[in-house]
Design goal:
Oligomer: single chain
Distance between the termini: 14 Å
Radius of gyration: 19 Å
Strand content: 15-25%
Order of helices and strands: EEEHEHEEEHEHEHEHEHEEHHEHH
Shape: globular
Helix content: 25-40%
Number of helices: 11
Largest sheet: 8 strands, parallel
Length: 329
Amino acid sequence: MNPFELKEISDTGVEVTRFGLGGAALGNLYAPVSDKDGYETIETAYDVGIRYFDTAPFYGLGRSEKLFGRVLRQMPRSSFRLSTKAGRLIVDGEIDPDEYMPFVDIPKKHPVFDYSRDAILRSLDDSLERLGLDYVDIVYIHDPDDHYESALDQAFPTLADLRSQGVIKAVGAGMNQAEMLTEFARNADFDCFLLAGRYTLLDQIALKELFPICQRKNISIIIGGAYNSGILATGPVEGAHYNYLPAPPEIMERTKKLQEVCSRHQVSLKAAALQFPMHHPVVAANIPGTRLKSRLTENLTLFSEDIPAGFWAELKSLGLIDPLSPLPE
């Protein structure tokens, strides 16, 4: 699979490489990353040919955007595509001790859910300042799980206005669930969705409703969380994580069966996890994140690994993946 093949987002004219770089890890997700390692990872991604980068204000409360900006503003702006997110406004203040915060060594800032027009505009202005760039290509409404109405009635129209003015080129939503994205697809003119963890070797719920409506309405899908928080990278080892929590026994057992098929076909589980979602025609790109250039290089190799059709056929025959999943024959 060619990681540098270009795919257009809907009919926006925005072309992204099939393999992109996600920016959560560069925001000190679970562990700190040095400026040096962060810069090297982004520089290496650009140097090898990756031309799609994704970040968000929430990632390290601004740290990820600053790292990306420091590197990318040295490159010709027309040579890459960049997405960020809006919906969590970063303001001064201490973090609530009871608030979920997966990022470490963060500044004295506080994320506030706010999908109002003023907050969306302010968030984008703040992102551009941190990035040091004049524009971003795609803006995703970020994690509106508990804010469906305000996301649809306030955030989306605001971003759609910016799209019509040419300020941004595409409007999306980024979530860890397929159900609300399906409702967004039904009720508004989105260009793309960033779907994390819901179309993977372990979870194909997106096939039920989301992907069919996206195909009908020409909405592109960007894949995040292809490793389902880690277990599809580590395998079913003690302490493996699935959906940000310790993997339950049934997931451990299913991953073990996937690994056994991988062994029979001499296929890396990680390669299968990265490549599986790419065979669906609605998927434009996959954006695994990493904090180290060595891991980035490994992911690129895995993405390009040759996987025999017989491997995918056996997964289907054993009922390990949904029979409706499009795969090579």
